[in-house]
Write a structure and sequence with these properties.
single chain, about 190 residues, alpha/beta, Rossmann fold, seven-stranded mixed β-sheet, two-stranded parallel ribbon, 9 strands, about 30% helix, about 30% strand
Length: about 190
């Protein structure tokens, strides 16, 4: 039996609610060989805390049904606070991609980073059509103040499975794709 991801999430939530069990889902780290190498003009990069919409900033995993309503369940949670987790994921993947020294804010080194990456997410949701959607805008601000860049992103990653863990894996793919877009067009 194959279930649509939004239905599957609702089904899993209903089962979890029956037992009173809370499940937490971690986003798997990307395999380094699956991450492309992209040169950066900056040797050091600071990633600001990612800004998320209210529903996505919650620990609860959000999904959008056929009617467009975004819902969540208190028994299906992200393993870490989403803004913190996505910021750390983005910093890790950008570091692997660019081979630059990358860290999430606050910048832990004595010297300032050569560039600052700021990401503002407008939408982050598991959609009823079986895709994880991530959209918004990013900004890259060099320490010199000259040559800043920005760009819009609209990323869709397939949800391959019937459990909330498949949504977590799709979020990991979406963040990796966002890091690649920032590295190619902003760094």
């Amino acid at each position: 039996m194959t279930l649509k991801p939004a239905f599957a999430l609702t089904f899993v939530a209903a089962l979890a609610a029956c037992g009173g069990t809370v499940e937490r889902f971690a986003v798997p780290a990307p395999v380094e060989t699956a991450v492309p190498r992209i040169a950066s003009r900056y040797g050091t990069i600071e990633v600001r805390q990612v800004s998320l919409p209210t529903y996505a900033a919650s620990e609860e995993i959000a999904s959008r049904g056929q009617g467009g309503a975004i819902t969540s369940d208190k028994s299906l949670l992200w393993a870490d606070e989403p803004a913190r987790a996505i910021t750390l994921e983005l910093a890790r993947v950008l570091g692997v991609m660019t081979r630059a020294q990358v860290a999430a804010e606050p910048w832990p080194f004595l010297d300032r980073a050569a560039a600052l990456v700021d990401v503002r997410v407008e939408e982050m949701v598991a959609d009823a059509d079986g895709a994880f959607r991530l959209s918004g805008q990013y900004y890259v601000a060099p320490d010199s103040g000259i040559g800043g860049r920005s760009g819009l992103f609209e990323i869709s990653a397939p949800i391959l499975g019937e459990r909330a863990g498949a949504i977590a894996a799709a979020r990991g793919v979406a963040v990796r794709d966002l890091a690649e877009q920032i590295a190619r067009n902003g760094l």
